Amino acid sequence: MFFSYLCLLMKNKSLVYLLCGSNLGNRFEQLDIASALLSEKAGEVCASSSYYETAAWGIEDQPLFLNQAHGIHTDLSPIDLLVCLKGIEKEMGRIANGRWQERNIDIDIICYDRCIINSKELVIPHKMIAERRFTLEPLCEIAPKLIEPRSGKSIQELLKDCKDPLRVKILELS
Fold first, then answer.
1. In this structure, which CATH number among 3.30.70.1230, 3.40.50.10700, 3.40.50.150, 3.30.70.560 belongs to the domain 14-127?
2. CA atoms within 13 A on the CB side of 136
3. Is 117:5 a contact under the CB 8 Å cutoff?
4. pTM of the model
5. Which of 27, 106, 133, 164 is catalytic?
6. Which sequence spans correspond to the domains of the chain?
7. Which residue among 41, 73, 154, 168 has its CA within the 20 to 30 Å range from the CA of 161?
8. Would you call 94 a catalytic residue per the annotation?
9. Is 75 a catalytic residue?
């Protein structure tokens, strides 16, 4: 596998930001299960955002999504983390039904340390990070000063510049 940028990993664990989303079944439960499985299989969850609700992006004629961002410390390589996340999705019953379709769980790697990876299997940072308010808002809650390495801008700056018109609503749990 060829990486466009050599990602040097220290002996310490890497800091990774993920976005989990669900728009089928009990969305809160799906996100809570995903968070528990992340802790068990991928690494220590060190930060979690509130829950955010938004209309579906891409194919809009489907149920509302619930999203949550997580920061994790992991010793998995980027490709091993991807395999782990796909395993969690499969364990949770995700069925591959096409891009931007309804799903009970979706887990995306948004940023992995300051790595830039462009391969057939994996693109980090997520290639659409700057275009998706539903990603930026929860991520800004837990890591506003995080620098997206391609643009050199902070998550806060990317959110300020984001042109995505979809409303993202924070949900308060009582």
1. 3.30.70.560
2. 24
3. yes
4. 0.90
5. 106
6. 14-127
7. 73
8. yes
9. no
